[in-house]
Amino acid sequence: MTDINKLFSKVIFFSIIVILFIFSYTCADTPLNIQMTNVRGTSFTISWITQSIEYGKIRYGSQIENDADWLTVNDHRGEDTIDDIHYVVIDNIRPQQIYYYEIVSGNTIDNNNNQFYKINSGPALTPPGGSCQPAGKVFKYENSSIMAFDSIVYVTILGESATQNSAVESVIVTSNENGYWFLDLINFRTQDYKMYFPFECGVSNIRIKAQGGNDGESQMEITAMNYGTGESPPIYLSEKNSTPFEKQYTITATASENGRITPYNIINVNEFSGQSFTIIPNNGYKIKAVYVDGNSIGSSPVYTFSNIIDNHEIYATFRPIFYEIKGSIHYDGKQEGRLYIEAYSVNSPENIVDQKCSIWDLETTVSQFKLQVPNGQYHIRAYIDLNGAVKNKRDEWEAYGKYNAENIIISDKHDQILRNISLSDPVPYHLISTNSNILRGQPGNKCSFHLNYHTTDTTPDLQRLDVRVHYNSEIISFTNITNKHNDKSFIYSNSYEVSNIIDQDENTDRFISLLWENSENIFLDSNHQIRLATINFMVNENLEYGEKSTIQIISDNNTSEDYQFYSLPVTLTIVPFNLDVDCNGEVSALSDGLLILRYLFGLDQGESFTGRSNSLMKTNTFLDGIVDKKNGTCITENEIIENIKRLMPK
């Protein structure tokens, strides 16, 4: 053989070795023995095994085309479970519904060759009376006392043939039940899941199969017996990769939020052996402390038990990593009091992450500050608390004060920018607001919001109030205006936009101009909120659910001198159904929920279920005040009943 031929042979040989290695590695997390069990109308279970220890999840949904929005469900034992046995329970689903799913097993996504797995959830049935509950234990080896925790038991009630057997039910064996498995035969269904499977306790035969992954599997057929009568025979797994030892111990490994420990849960270990654990904090967190058998051993990311001769516990805790936001604040006002600088979460303004305060000294116009925050997205704000001397406390200061509220993203390092805040004494303002800045609309149905006016000055120098409401006519169509404040001095028009310069929103194309003349001092008491009008629209047909549109509200050059003008846009979301039956912008169990329940129970007849009698105006003490008549735009009985009817199945 020539040197070239020898070289070629070596290349071929090593290529085969590499291919076999890659194949064995990539197949280690491939789902095997996939089982669909416990199909009960509102839930079902997917289980499988892998050759290696992996994470396991299920992604599912009712529409293939919307698979990007599918829900993800972790292993039934917790999202940190790493095992060669995988057991995922999908619940809170709709009966008689087709669902599609894919299996996420380690780095492998099994979507049934891009066709996705499919299941009909079956009807929701009322369980019959009685009970027949076989129970037993699963052991790793024959004649051994070592229980096979985290194995799965599959049970089938046997008929005269395989096609006449019941559907399969399953349960995972954990230490929480001391290694016992329990299944009540009254929950078993026929193979089409449409009805319960008939059986006779003490007479019917059942097949029991135990799946232990790398620990092996086993099955047997016995007569179904209720646990109170006698325990089922033990199941011994056929050995695969294990050798029996005379004695084993358990190590219970757990972790607090914001991190994990691996391996996790109850680990079986052989006597005199060792077991290592790795503690992994989430992004933005660090290990606070690791406890072994209740004693802190520091914050090491790895801990190893050696020469094990007893049961043990290991528990890990975590804390945020804090980073700095630095800056200075300049105050040019004339007040004295306590100065506060705060960092708060963008998504939760009420969540103050860090706060610094000092007594303001008029001789010093600049003050330095440093805030400590974990990873996240923050605003910073400043205000002076004068114990109520003037109206510039935190909640009102945000409405009209001059301050910096910057979007600061903290990610694994200190903020690199010095944040400079300017704080001034408050000035009078005009505020146009709505009953809610969130509006839900169903295609072909009405949607409305109240327009309100408020000012800090009881006698504002305001000759007229001119407000423009800009909207997208491809989403909604203007119908009319109701509840007008002082109808005599009010005029309005509905026009096309010439340009988007005024509202700076390229998606709007029409606007409603509303004008109130103040010749009769109609805004004299506007330090209290005044309802200007109710703006009514009709949502256009053929819109996609989830589509959003912004309604812009602006002032048309009418702000008084030295006044500031504020208004917030309204976001309209297209929804298939709307539980906000009184149209106040909020879904509340104590208002909308009660109204829906009373309607379903037929309590809309006779005495008005909105809180008043149809004829004698008799007060219903249980319901009076349920409807939000201040902010709601659907407050009559006919409007509410019509909204509830839209929620009912066609």
Tag the structure with descriptive keywords.
650 residues, Immunoglobulin-like, 7 domains, six-stranded mixed beta sheet, 4 helices
Distance between the termini: 81 Å
CATH topology tier name of the largest domain: Immunoglobulin-like
Contiguous helical run count: 4
Give the percentage of residues in beta strands: 35-45%
- Structure class: mainly beta
Quickly count the domains: 7
Low-confidence stretches: 16-26, 240-246, 388-404, 612-623
Chain oligomer state: single chain
Number of strands: 41
Cα shape: flat
CATH class of the largest domain: Mainly Beta
Question: What's the mean pLDDT score?
Answer: 79
Task: Walk me through what this model shows.
There is one protein chain. The chain is mainly β and 650 residues long. The protein has seven domains: 1-27; 32-120, Immunoglobulins (Immunoglobulin-like, Sandwich); 135-236; 248-320; 323-423, Immunoglobulin-like (Sandwich); 429-574, Immunoglobulin-like (Sandwich), CATH 2.60.40.680; 589-647, no CATH class. Helix content is 8%, strand content 40%. The chain is built from four helices and 41 strands. It has a six-stranded mixed beta sheet, with no helix packed on it. The longest helix has 25 residues, at 3-27. The radius of gyration is 34 Å and the shape is flat.
